[in-house]
Each structure stands twice: as structure tokens, then as C-alpha cells.
Amino acid sequence: MADEEVPVHDLRTDRPTPARMYDYYLGGKDNFAVDRDAAEQVLSAAPEVRVLARENRAFLGRVVRYLAAEAGIRQFIDVGTGLPTQGNVHEVAQAVAPGTRVVYVDNDPIVRAHAKALLPADGTTAIVEADMRDPGPILDHPHTRRLIRFDEPVAVLFMSVLHFITDEEDPYGLVAAFRDVSAPGSHLALSHITTPEGNADGAESAADVYKKRATSPAILRSPKEIEALFDGYDLVEPGLVNVPKWRPDDPEAARSGDSVWMLGAAARKR
Ligand SMILES: C[S@@+](CC[C@H](N)C(=O)[O-])C[C@H]1O[C@@H](n2cnc3c(N)ncnc32)[C@H](O)[C@@H]1O
């Protein structure tokens, strides 16, 4: 069955989804009452989550610009892409290098529905509805095969998504599955929530809302656990840092970035 013929699956309007809650934090309108209610519960435990979401989007933009402009990457796989918003990967990358190819991957059917409506019709991008816990079908998908040449450097992005994968589901193994098919000189970039030094109770309570109510739990990992995801890669400067501190456009504004308990980095495959 061609992708275009795949029906929109159960949208899970009965339970909050990470994609729609994130859309709410960012001020979007693609969310339901059940998402807003859970997101408000998160925000009352940890009001800074709205800043985390905004800083994460800004980090994503800077990383993609770096990968396109400085690392020379011309093809991206964006895993856990989220609902289309401003500064999507193809927009940032194609502003640097027109024709850059992007495969978007998400397991939330509403993401596919919106992406299909909003992505350009020029054949440079595609959306694959799939669960990253099973990388094989993503790597073998006709869209991936059409857009990605694995004998050339590719950037794989896991932005604010690996914290939805439990240890039992093996986030390290799934990142490695993408690494193992990538050419040397390929890049990995990711962001991930961590236990904050400040509002640790708030962060735990926020994570608890996902665990009890949402379609995925949220897992806070230590800097060491997050850095281990980069096995087989060399971190590029400045390494794994609070996302506002990663190559900031305004170093002065990034000085307060330590309170943003989302870590991020980019790295080059050896
Ligand atoms: C917090 S949003 C991040 C969106 C975007 N990457 C960003 O950083 O702005 C997380 C996204 O990951 C998706 N996601 C969560 N678990 C997933 C899984 N197992 N497979 C594929 N996508 C997943 C959600 O549907 C959601 O769209």
C-alpha cells in the first residue's frame, strides 16, 4: 500500500500524546483538551517546561544550521519530528543548501497528517509514520530508500525524543542501529531531559504526569547516561551542554542556560 493511501490511524484523543503536549507548550493549536489538561499539570509542577520547549526548538535550529553550513550535510533523518512548527528541519537546512533531503519520522498519526499537508511538494522531504523502537522498517522504508544515500554522510536527529524510550526498550540499541548504517563523517544530534540541580522535585513530578497519563512515560537521564548515546561518535564543540549553551547566537542570553534541564550535543561518526 502506498504511503498516500494509509488511513489516519487512531488519533488517541482519549489520552495525551507527547507530540500534542509539546505543541501546547510551544503555543500551537494542534492539541486536544486531554493534552492541554495534562500539559497544564506538567506546567504547574515545573513552569520552566515551556522555556525548555522553546530553547529546544532554538537548539534544533542552530544544530541543523551548523550541520548544513559547517559539516556539509545534505541529507537528514529527523526521528520524533513533532508537529510542524516554525523552523522545521528542511526549512533551516534548505536555507543553507537548497535541495537538502529530509526524512521525517514520527509514530503519532496526527504528525503524519499535518506533515503531509504542509511539506513541500518538490520531492525533497517525506514523512514516515513509524515507531523508532523498531528501526528496521524506518531504514527500509521506500521514502528513506528514495531520499537517503547511506554511502554518503547523513545526519540523524533525535531531538527531545529519546526520553520517551525506557531502558527496557533500549535507547542505546536503537541509536546504534542508525549509526551502523551511516557512512563515516555522518552526524548524530540529540537533546534529552536530565535531572536538574534546581527544581528536581518539579522535574520528577512533571515526568510522573507522562508516566501516569500520556501514551509514553518520560525518563530523566544523567549527563553520563545521555553522553553514552554517542558511542562511536566524537562530540563536536562545545560537547554535551544545557541546550541554550550550545553555540548560542547570543552568548550573553545563554548565560542563564543552566536552569534549562535539557542537554544537547552534536557529534561526528568516526
Ligand atoms: C517533544 S516532541 C519533539 C519534537 C521535535 N523533535 C523537537 O525537538 O522540536 C517528541 C516527538 O517524538 C515523537 N515520539 C515519541 N515516541 C516516539 C517513538 N517511539 N517513535 C517515533 N516517534 C516518537 C512524538 O510523537 C513527538 O512528536
Write a structural description:
It is a single chain. The protein starts with 17 loop residues before the first helix and ends with a strand. Strands 1, 2, 3, 4, 5, 6, 7 and 8 form an 8-stranded mixed beta sheet that branches. The protein has one domain: Rossmann fold (3-Layer(aba) Sandwich), CATH 3.40.50. By secondary structure, the protein is α/β, with parallel strands linked by helices. Bound molecules: S-adenosylmethionine. S-adenosylmethionine binds next to helix 1 and helix 3.
Shape: globular
The number of helices is 10
What is the count of β-strands?
8
Radius of gyration from the alpha-carbon trace, in angstroms: 17 Å
The appropriate CATH architecture is 3-Layer(aba) Sandwich
Structural class: alpha/beta
What is the residue-averaged pLDDT?
A: 94
Overall tally of structural domains: 1
How do the SSEs run, as a string of H and E? HHHEHEHEHHEHEHHEEE
CATH superfamily, please?
Vaccinia Virus protein VP39
- The portion of residues assigned to helices is 25-40%
CATH topology: Rossmann fold
CATH class membership: Alpha Beta
> Strand portion, in percent?
15-25%
- Which compounds are bound in this model? S-adenosylmethionine
Residue stretches low in confidence (pLDDT < 50, at least 5 long) are none
The biggest beta sheet reads: 8 strands, mixed
Distance between the termini: 38 Å
